[in-house]
Amino acid sequence: MKKAELDSILKIIKEEIAKTETAVKNYLERTKPIAPENSIGRVSRMDAINNRSVNEAALKNSFIKY
After folding, report:
1. Quick one: which of 27, 45, 44 has its CA closest to 35?
2. pLDDT tens, residue by residue, 21-50
3. For residue 40, what are the contacts with CB-CB under 8 A and spacing of at least 6?
4. Beta carbons within 10 angstroms of residue 43's beta carbon
5. Does the CA dihedral 30-34-39-42 come out positive or negative?
6. Which residue, among 23, 32, 7, has the nearest Cα to 58 in the 3D structure?
7. What is each CA distance from 18 to 25, 55, 58, 65, in whole angstroms?
8. What residues have CB less than 8 Å from 31, skipping those under 6 apart?
9. This model's pTM is above 0.85
């Protein structure tokens, strides 16, 4: 393989690593515990818990993928 090809592959790999790291940070932020506040209703809290579960699954899949 030529140096230009290796450099191109290395660039792609670094870009994918950066994308994955960003995605993981976003998923970690979205999966923080949900505080039981009086300001949100029961349905809104259940929706937030459901969204958290979806993001946790996406986080697990991002680790499995790579």
Report:
1. 45
2. 898 888 888 777 766 665 566 677 778 778
3. 48
4. 8
5. positive
6. 23
7. 11, 19, 17, 15
8. 52, 55, 56, 59
9. no
